[in-house]
Amino acid sequence: MVAETSKNISVTIRVWRQAATDQAGKFVDYPAKDLNPNMSLLEMLDVVNDQLERIGEDPIAFAHDCREGICGTCSLVIDGKPHGPHTGVASCQTYMRSFEDNSIITIEPFRAKPFPVIKDLISDRSAFDAIQQSGGFISIRTGSAQDANATPIPKDVADLAMDAAQCIGCGACVAACKNASAMLFVSAKVSQLGLLPQGQPERDTRVLNMVAKMDELGFGNCTNQYECSAACPKLISHDFIARMNRDYIAASFRAAFKHKPAGGSGGA
After folding, report:
1. Domain 9-119 adopts which CATH fold?
2. Where does the 2Fe-2S ferredoxin-type domain lie (predicted)?
Protein backbone atom coordinates (compact mmCIF):
# COMPACT_ATOMS: atom_id res chain seq x y z
CA MET A 1 0.00 0.00 0.00
CA VAL A 2 1.09 3.57 -0.63
CA ALA A 3 1.94 5.46 2.57
CA GLU A 4 -0.55 8.03 3.87
CA THR A 5 0.00 11.59 2.73
CA SER A 6 -1.50 14.98 3.60
CA LYS A 7 -1.21 16.71 0.21
CA ASN A 8 -4.61 17.06 -1.44
CA ILE A 9 -5.04 15.90 -5.00
CA SER A 10 -7.40 16.51 -7.91
CA VAL A 11 -8.45 13.92 -10.48
CA THR A 12 -10.90 13.41 -13.31
CA ILE A 13 -13.11 10.35 -13.06
CA ARG A 14 -14.35 8.76 -16.26
CA VAL A 15 -17.49 6.94 -15.14
CA TRP A 16 -19.81 4.56 -16.97
CA ARG A 17 -23.34 6.00 -16.97
CA GLN A 18 -26.24 3.77 -17.99
CA ALA A 19 -29.81 4.57 -17.00
CA ALA A 20 -31.14 1.00 -17.20
CA THR A 21 -30.28 -2.50 -18.40
CA ASP A 22 -32.08 -2.06 -21.72
CA GLN A 23 -30.55 1.33 -22.50
CA ALA A 24 -27.19 2.22 -24.03
CA GLY A 25 -24.49 3.57 -21.77
CA LYS A 26 -21.48 5.81 -22.17
CA PHE A 27 -18.50 7.19 -20.26
CA VAL A 28 -18.87 10.64 -18.73
CA ASP A 29 -16.04 12.71 -17.21
CA TYR A 30 -16.40 14.48 -13.87
CA PRO A 31 -13.81 16.60 -12.06
CA ALA A 32 -13.02 15.71 -8.46
CA LYS A 33 -10.92 18.46 -6.93
CA ASP A 34 -9.04 19.07 -3.70
CA LEU A 35 -9.48 15.54 -2.36
CA ASN A 36 -7.99 14.18 0.81
CA PRO A 37 -5.70 11.43 -0.54
CA ASN A 38 -6.50 9.22 2.43
CA MET A 39 -10.20 8.96 1.56
CA SER A 40 -11.36 5.79 -0.13
CA LEU A 41 -12.45 5.69 -3.76
CA LEU A 42 -16.04 5.22 -2.60
CA GLU A 43 -15.79 8.31 -0.40
CA MET A 44 -14.56 10.18 -3.45
CA LEU A 45 -17.68 9.04 -5.33
CA ASP A 46 -19.76 10.33 -2.41
CA VAL A 47 -18.10 13.74 -2.81
CA VAL A 48 -18.76 13.79 -6.56
CA ASN A 49 -22.39 12.76 -6.01
CA ASP A 50 -22.88 15.60 -3.51
CA GLN A 51 -21.65 18.00 -6.19
CA LEU A 52 -23.96 16.50 -8.82
CA GLU A 53 -26.99 16.71 -6.55
CA ARG A 54 -26.26 20.36 -5.78
CA ILE A 55 -26.48 21.21 -9.48
CA GLY A 56 -29.56 19.05 -10.04
CA GLU A 57 -27.90 16.16 -11.88
CA ASP A 58 -28.54 12.45 -11.30
CA PRO A 59 -25.91 11.05 -8.91
CA ILE A 60 -23.73 8.12 -9.94
CA ALA A 61 -25.33 4.86 -8.84
CA PHE A 62 -22.91 2.45 -7.19
CA ALA A 63 -23.36 -0.40 -4.71
CA HIS A 64 -21.82 -0.48 -1.25
CA ASP A 65 -22.50 -1.83 2.20
CA CYS A 66 -19.80 -2.62 4.77
CA ARG A 67 -16.97 -0.59 3.18
CA GLU A 68 -14.57 -2.90 5.01
CA GLY A 69 -13.77 -5.45 2.29
CA ILE A 70 -16.15 -8.02 3.77
CA CYS A 71 -19.45 -7.93 1.85
CA GLY A 72 -18.24 -7.86 -1.78
CA THR A 73 -20.94 -5.36 -2.75
CA CYS A 74 -18.61 -2.59 -3.99
CA SER A 75 -17.61 -4.42 -7.18
CA LEU A 76 -16.00 -1.96 -9.61
CA VAL A 77 -13.52 -2.15 -12.46
CA ILE A 78 -11.00 0.62 -11.79
CA ASP A 79 -8.58 1.49 -14.59
CA GLY A 80 -9.27 -1.85 -16.24
CA LYS A 81 -8.73 -4.00 -13.15
CA PRO A 82 -11.45 -5.45 -10.92
CA HIS A 83 -11.24 -3.68 -7.54
CA GLY A 84 -8.39 -1.45 -8.65
CA PRO A 85 -4.60 -1.34 -8.78
CA HIS A 86 -3.77 -3.26 -5.60
CA THR A 87 -3.80 -6.97 -4.76
CA GLY A 88 -5.97 -8.56 -2.10
CA VAL A 89 -8.33 -5.61 -1.51
CA ALA A 90 -11.88 -4.74 -2.52
CA SER A 91 -12.91 -1.50 -4.26
CA CYS A 92 -13.82 0.08 -0.91
CA GLN A 93 -10.25 -0.48 0.30
CA THR A 94 -8.73 1.42 -2.63
CA TYR A 95 -7.63 4.88 -1.54
CA MET A 96 -7.11 8.06 -3.51
CA ARG A 97 -3.42 8.10 -2.55
CA SER A 98 -3.11 5.19 -4.98
CA PHE A 99 -3.53 7.61 -7.90
CA GLU A 100 -1.41 10.41 -9.26
CA ASP A 101 -2.48 14.03 -8.93
CA ASN A 102 -4.37 15.24 -12.05
CA SER A 103 -4.79 11.68 -13.33
CA ILE A 104 -7.84 10.26 -15.10
CA ILE A 105 -9.46 7.32 -13.30
CA THR A 106 -11.77 5.11 -15.36
CA ILE A 107 -14.52 3.45 -13.33
CA GLU A 108 -16.97 0.94 -14.77
CA PRO A 109 -19.17 -1.96 -13.60
CA PHE A 110 -18.25 -5.63 -13.68
CA ARG A 111 -19.08 -6.81 -17.18
CA ALA A 112 -20.32 -10.30 -18.03
CA LYS A 113 -23.43 -11.68 -19.70
CA PRO A 114 -24.68 -13.20 -16.41
CA PHE A 115 -23.99 -9.84 -14.66
CA PRO A 116 -26.24 -7.35 -16.52
CA VAL A 117 -25.81 -3.69 -15.61
CA ILE A 118 -28.76 -2.42 -13.56
CA LYS A 119 -27.70 1.22 -13.52
CA ASP A 120 -24.37 3.02 -13.90
CA LEU A 121 -21.85 1.07 -11.80
CA ILE A 122 -24.27 -1.50 -10.36
CA SER A 123 -24.29 -5.00 -11.87
CA ASP A 124 -26.90 -7.66 -11.11
CA ARG A 125 -24.89 -10.48 -9.54
CA SER A 126 -27.90 -12.53 -8.43
CA ALA A 127 -26.61 -15.34 -10.66
CA PHE A 128 -24.19 -16.12 -7.83
CA ASP A 129 -27.15 -16.43 -5.45
CA ALA A 130 -28.79 -18.92 -7.83
CA ILE A 131 -25.63 -21.03 -7.94
CA GLN A 132 -25.39 -20.98 -4.15
CA GLN A 133 -29.04 -21.94 -3.80
CA SER A 134 -28.57 -24.91 -6.13
CA GLY A 135 -26.30 -26.74 -3.70
CA GLY A 136 -24.05 -24.53 -1.58
CA PHE A 137 -25.53 -25.61 1.73
CA ILE A 138 -25.93 -28.57 4.11
CA SER A 139 -29.53 -29.77 4.45
CA ILE A 140 -28.88 -33.11 6.16
CA ARG A 141 -28.86 -32.70 9.92
CA THR A 142 -25.38 -33.28 11.31
CA GLY A 143 -26.09 -32.67 14.98
CA SER A 144 -26.06 -29.68 17.27
CA ALA A 145 -23.14 -27.34 17.82
CA GLN A 146 -21.98 -29.50 20.69
CA ASP A 147 -21.90 -32.57 18.42
CA ALA A 148 -20.06 -30.63 15.74
CA ASN A 149 -17.39 -29.60 18.25
CA ALA A 150 -16.82 -33.28 19.00
CA THR A 151 -16.13 -34.11 15.34
CA PRO A 152 -12.35 -34.30 14.85
CA ILE A 153 -11.11 -32.30 11.85
CA PRO A 154 -7.37 -32.19 11.07
CA LYS A 155 -6.02 -28.64 11.32
CA ASP A 156 -4.73 -28.61 7.74
CA VAL A 157 -8.18 -29.59 6.46
CA ALA A 158 -9.91 -26.98 8.64
CA ASP A 159 -7.46 -24.31 7.47
CA LEU A 160 -8.04 -25.21 3.81
CA ALA A 161 -11.82 -25.08 4.29
CA MET A 162 -11.47 -21.65 5.89
CA ASP A 163 -9.33 -20.49 2.95
CA ALA A 164 -12.21 -21.39 0.63
CA ALA A 165 -14.79 -19.87 2.99
CA GLN A 166 -13.13 -16.45 2.66
CA CYS A 167 -14.81 -15.98 -0.73
CA ILE A 168 -17.15 -12.97 -0.49
CA GLY A 169 -18.91 -13.59 -3.81
CA CYS A 170 -17.95 -10.22 -5.25
CA GLY A 171 -17.59 -11.48 -8.84
CA ALA A 172 -14.08 -10.16 -9.50
CA CYS A 173 -13.09 -13.60 -10.79
CA VAL A 174 -15.79 -13.39 -13.47
CA ALA A 175 -14.95 -9.80 -14.39
CA ALA A 176 -11.25 -10.61 -14.75
CA CYS A 177 -11.75 -13.75 -16.86
CA LYS A 178 -11.86 -13.37 -20.65
CA ASN A 179 -14.44 -16.18 -20.69
CA ALA A 180 -16.49 -14.78 -17.78
CA SER A 181 -15.94 -18.05 -15.94
CA ALA A 182 -17.30 -18.47 -12.42
CA MET A 183 -15.13 -21.49 -11.66
CA LEU A 184 -13.19 -19.84 -8.82
CA PHE A 185 -16.37 -18.78 -7.02
CA VAL A 186 -18.08 -22.15 -7.49
CA SER A 187 -14.99 -24.14 -6.54
CA ALA A 188 -14.58 -22.12 -3.34
CA LYS A 189 -18.19 -22.72 -2.34
CA VAL A 190 -18.00 -26.41 -3.25
CA SER A 191 -14.70 -26.94 -1.44
CA GLN A 192 -15.72 -24.99 1.63
CA LEU A 193 -18.30 -27.66 2.49
CA GLY A 194 -16.80 -30.64 0.65
CA LEU A 195 -13.67 -30.58 2.79
CA LEU A 196 -15.60 -30.93 6.05
CA PRO A 197 -17.22 -34.11 7.42
CA GLN A 198 -20.58 -32.33 7.74
CA GLY A 199 -20.59 -31.77 3.98
CA GLN A 200 -19.91 -35.34 2.90
CA PRO A 201 -23.51 -36.71 2.61
CA GLU A 202 -24.33 -34.20 -0.17
CA ARG A 203 -20.86 -33.88 -1.66
CA ASP A 204 -21.71 -35.43 -5.05
CA THR A 205 -25.08 -33.74 -5.57
CA ARG A 206 -23.61 -30.41 -4.46
CA VAL A 207 -20.86 -30.27 -7.07
CA LEU A 208 -23.06 -31.64 -9.85
CA ASN A 209 -25.89 -29.21 -9.17
CA MET A 210 -23.72 -26.13 -8.71
CA VAL A 211 -21.69 -26.73 -11.87
CA ALA A 212 -24.89 -27.43 -13.83
CA LYS A 213 -26.44 -24.18 -12.60
CA MET A 214 -23.27 -22.25 -13.44
CA ASP A 215 -23.39 -23.57 -17.01
CA GLU A 216 -27.13 -22.91 -17.29
CA LEU A 217 -26.66 -19.26 -16.32
CA GLY A 218 -24.19 -18.67 -19.14
CA PHE A 219 -20.83 -18.42 -17.39
CA GLY A 220 -17.88 -19.38 -19.59
CA ASN A 221 -15.37 -22.19 -19.34
CA CYS A 222 -12.09 -22.02 -17.46
CA THR A 223 -8.92 -21.92 -19.57
CA ASN A 224 -6.53 -21.91 -16.59
CA GLN A 225 -4.93 -18.50 -17.05
CA TYR A 226 -5.54 -17.59 -13.39
CA GLU A 227 -6.75 -14.03 -13.85
CA CYS A 228 -9.43 -15.02 -11.35
CA SER A 229 -7.14 -15.66 -8.39
CA ALA A 230 -5.02 -12.61 -9.29
CA ALA A 231 -8.08 -10.33 -9.10
CA CYS A 232 -9.68 -11.97 -6.05
CA PRO A 233 -9.71 -9.57 -3.07
CA LYS A 234 -9.40 -12.55 -0.72
CA LEU A 235 -6.66 -14.24 -2.78
CA ILE A 236 -8.64 -17.48 -3.19
CA SER A 237 -6.29 -20.00 -4.80
CA HIS A 238 -7.03 -21.42 -8.25
CA ASP A 239 -6.03 -24.79 -6.76
CA PHE A 240 -9.65 -25.05 -5.62
CA ILE A 241 -10.69 -25.26 -9.28
CA ALA A 242 -8.59 -28.40 -9.73
CA ARG A 243 -10.08 -29.83 -6.53
CA MET A 244 -13.61 -29.16 -7.78
CA ASN A 245 -12.83 -30.72 -11.17
CA ARG A 246 -11.69 -33.91 -9.44
CA ASP A 247 -14.85 -33.96 -7.32
CA TYR A 248 -17.01 -33.33 -10.39
CA ILE A 249 -15.45 -36.17 -12.40
CA ALA A 250 -15.78 -38.60 -9.46
CA ALA A 251 -19.38 -37.54 -8.79
CA SER A 252 -20.31 -37.87 -12.49
CA PHE A 253 -18.81 -41.37 -12.60
CA ARG A 254 -20.69 -42.49 -9.50
CA ALA A 255 -23.95 -40.96 -10.79
CA ALA A 256 -23.58 -42.77 -14.14
CA PHE A 257 -23.11 -46.15 -12.50
CA LYS A 258 -25.41 -45.66 -9.57
CA HIS A 259 -27.41 -48.79 -8.78
CA LYS A 260 -30.95 -48.58 -10.11
CA PRO A 261 -33.87 -50.60 -8.65
CA ALA A 262 -34.82 -53.71 -10.60
CA GLY A 263 -37.99 -53.71 -12.65
CA GLY A 264 -38.34 -50.20 -14.03
CA SER A 265 -41.52 -48.40 -15.01
CA GLY A 266 -42.73 -50.83 -17.69
CA GLY A 267 -45.72 -53.16 -17.68
CA ALA A 268 -46.18 -56.59 -16.10
Report:
1. Ubiquitin-like (UB roll) (3.10.20)
2. 9-110
